[in-house]
Recover the amino acids of this structure.
């Protein structure tokens, strides 16, 4: 069965996603502006409460475009280091140039942090990772942290060239709507991306996924995972709906 990743904008939404059956989430803050880096206290609490849940963490220091200054790059460095220390299973990040190309130097820098962490865990360097004797670190087994290039991809001017660059960086997947307002409108491009990738990178459809279209998007694109907020607005705040998560999962199972 295809995997559903639920985008959660607060700890309460994580509870709702898990109650609905989600096995992987993207943790962020401020979904109202399409997500920012969450407080690390949230990650720590979620990691301790749901040790078996796969938790990917969004790294986005501010609202707006994905063109970052050297000062913002330093902030992203620190955010990634903290996310790794507190038990993230995946890092979700994306950086562009003003012309709409991949910012390769900055992406190489950020991906390098994750690769160094993965190498350290492989070598058993627990003091560099989430040491069990330090309460500030997640005391779990060694793990390989994945990297998702997020929907900054949808602003790339040359998507197929950008995909090749993202593959060369060593990323695991691209979260994208197919450069369209919604995944339904971008289904053909999503299918093309998946076919051209030839299994070298995962394509994660996201943007406008609902219980009524999730199965169709997977069928149209041939993708094996899908991303949704499954949310509803409560007092002006986007909150994950347990019932929507259940409904999306049910639609995927019934394909």
């Amino acid at each position: 069965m295809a995997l559903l990743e639920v985008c959660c904008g607060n700890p309460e939404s994580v509870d709702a996603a898990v109650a609905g059956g989600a096995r992987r989430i993207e943790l962020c803050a401020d979904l109202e502006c399409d997500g920012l880096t969450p407080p690390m206290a949230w990650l720590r609490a979620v990691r301790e409460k749901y040790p078996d849940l796969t938790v990917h963490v969004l790294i986005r220091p501010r609202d707006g475009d994905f063109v970052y200054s050297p000062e913002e790059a330093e902030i992203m460095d620190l955010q990634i280091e903290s996310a790794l220390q507190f038990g993230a299973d995946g890092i979700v990040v994306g950086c562009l140039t003003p012309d709409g190309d991949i910012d390769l130097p900055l992406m190489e820098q950020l991906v390098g942090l994750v690769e160094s962490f993965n190498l350290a865990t492989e070598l058993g360097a627990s003091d560099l990772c989430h040491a069990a004797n330090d309460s500030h670190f997640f005391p779990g087994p060694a793990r390989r942290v994945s990297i998702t290039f997020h929907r900054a991809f949808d602003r790339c001017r040359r998507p197929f060239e950008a995909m090749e660059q993202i593959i060369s960086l060593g990323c695991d997947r691209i979260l994208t709507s197919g450069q369209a307002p919604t995944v339904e409108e971008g289904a053909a491009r999503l299918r093309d991306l998946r076919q051209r990738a030839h299994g070298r990178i995962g394509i994660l459809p996201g943007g406008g996924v609902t219980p009524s279209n999730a199965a169709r998007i997977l069928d149209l694109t041939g993708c094996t995972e899908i991303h949704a907020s499954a949310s509803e607005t409560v007092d002006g705040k986007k909150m994950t709906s347990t019932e929507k998560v259940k409904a999306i999962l049910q639609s995927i199972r019934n394909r």
About this structure: The chain has one domain: 9-239.
